[in-house]
Structure formats: structure tokens, C-alpha cells
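Ticket opened by: R.M.
Priority: normal
Category: complex prediction / small molecule

The reporter submitted a protein together with zinc ion and asked that the result be attached to this ticket for the collaborator who will pick it up next week. Submitted input follows.
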Amino acid sequence: MRLMIVAIDAARPIAPRTGGTLLINLHSHLEGRVRPETAAQVARELGLPDADRDWAQALQLERPADLTEYLVKVVSSFPLFSRLDYLERIAREAVEDAAADGEDYLELRFGPASHVSGGDLDAVIAAVCRGVADGAAATRMPAGVVVAALRSDPTEANEAVARAAARAAGRGVVGFDLAGDEKRFPELERYVDAFAIAGSAGLGLTCHAAEAAPGRAAVEAVELLGATRIGHGARIAREPGLMDWFVERGIAIEVCPTSNLYTGAVDSLDDHPAARFARAGVRVVLGDDNPRQTGSMLSREAEVLREDLGFDDRLMHRMAEDSVAAAFVDESTRRGWRDRLASADGPDVAPLRDVVADGGENGAARAGG
Ligand SMILES: [Zn+2]
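Result attached by the on-call engineer:
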């Protein structure tokens, strides 16, 4: 197992996004994308007692830990999100950094209830949507906002978040998620109404599941909450036969390999199930989760797939197709991406069942959006 930490260079010029590959980021948290220099400036303005600390070091995890420790690190940056103008700036810079990383699309998720305490959820969501729209306009990279409910929050608070997300549907918000500590709050029943509210507004539904809880948790996220995508899902592969259930339903798994190492969802990158998912015919899409905490942005995660997990050109191309199908975007964006993939000089990609040894009879389930 090789673990490489790479510094994130926000000053890097925007990479050209041409050619056959698409780099689509479907799992990334606003709270994990604060630039250290922005953190320092905001901390000084807020008069935080530790404003002069080394923010790059303060934000990044030193070593793999567990989900609770990982989240404590993420939450420690929450004071930086305490004003609307900071939220807007951090969101805009997140989009700029993703474009500089060579990404073609960023779905940026965040939990509005954690920010601007006692504040107006609509205003918090609007501020992030403004930042994302500005970043997208400046970089010409499309981006969307996914609003997250939080496992540790009261049911009524999460339903208020869902209603606010629903009001912002079509105005920057494209999806709804459940995030937070699955280890401490594993059960999903109490989020059913929140997901129903978001789903009826036309938002795409995803859910962090089977990251710290057994694989069955991801089945419940689909059956109870209506999720069409699963965040992480690392433990699905530990239960024999369970992957077929996801293949049959065309559910995409948002894999974030380096994050999974840092949260203890996998013991080593060699153990990461992304390749097993792909070879079984499960839709695999990619995210970088909290790149400031792990030091690894999406382009690096794509390298991890290739170098550590054995993804070849065919599997990378298949992942791009699955990402196009699973992204919470409008149909014209999806068509544009499909045209790009079709016209690319990529590998001559046969149906997955023909290119993998154990693909089973499930190729047909992969057709359609
Ligand atoms: Zn996540």
C-alpha cells in the first residue's frame, strides 16, 4: 500500500479540459475545501484566538484515523463558515480550485444547519449557491449544490433543511444528502420525511451509508430514503451477494479512496473495494470528500484508482459514463458530456459484461440514466 500526500496548489493555472476523459466530482464537501489562506484571513477578521496558526497543517489530518476523529477535524473549521460572505467566498473558491484541478464538474455538498447559528437557512443556502454560480461562471466549469441533512441533528431541524433545499431547487441546489457520524447515528428511519420533501421537489437523492455501518445500511438508504447514489458504501463489498443488489438497481457508489483510508472505512488502499465494485458491474463514481483534510483532490483520486486499484482505460471510461448518468445535472449538460465521451479517442469500450471476468448477467441494468 502506498499513500502519497500531495499539496493542493490553488494557484495552479486552470488545466485545459479537453480530450476524451471526463473528471466528474460527485462527492465533495464545502467544509473540506477551505483554502488555508482564506482560513487565516477569516480567522483574523473574526479575532479567533488561534488565528495565527498554520492553517494548512491545522486543516489536514496527520494520519488515517476513524470516522469520528475525521469529522472532529472537519468540524473544527466550522467557525470559518459563520458569515454569509465567508460561505459565498469559500464556495466560489472551491469551484475555482476544482476547475484548477482539471475537473469537469463539481457537485458541492454542505450542511447549512451547521453554519450561521440561528440564521436563516434560505440565506445560508443562497450564499453558497451564489458562490458556486460565480465560480462556475468564472471557470466555465458547471457546478451544483447538494444540501446535506446531518445525522446528529434533530428530525425537525433536518426536515427544515429539506424544505429550504426544496425551495432552492432550480436555483443552484441539485441534490439532497445525509451526512455525519454513521458510527454514532446509524439508523435511517427518522430521515424518511426529509428525503421525501427533497425528492418531491425534484432534487437528486444521495446518502452517506455503509461507510462505518454494515453494508445493509446502504440497502436501507435506497429502500427507505430513495437514494439513487450511495456515499462511500465501502462495507457493501464485505457482504457476499450484496453487490448484485446494487447492480440490479443501477445504484451508483460514490467512492472516495483516500478519505476511506483516513476514516478507517478500509484498512489500506489495497483493500479498497472500488475495483471489486467495477468488476462486479456496480456503477462507480468518484469524489474527493474533504480534500483539505486528506490532502488529495479529485485528480489525485483518479490516479489512486489507476495506480493503486488497477483501473485501466476501460474502467476509467466506464466510470466517466456512469458519472455522466448519475450526476444531478440537466439533460442538456448530460447530452454534452455523452457527446464528448462518444467522440473521444478513448478505448473501444465493449459492454462491461464482455470486459470483466465476473460481470454476471447484469449489464442491462446499467442502461439508462
Ligand atoms: Zn462525504
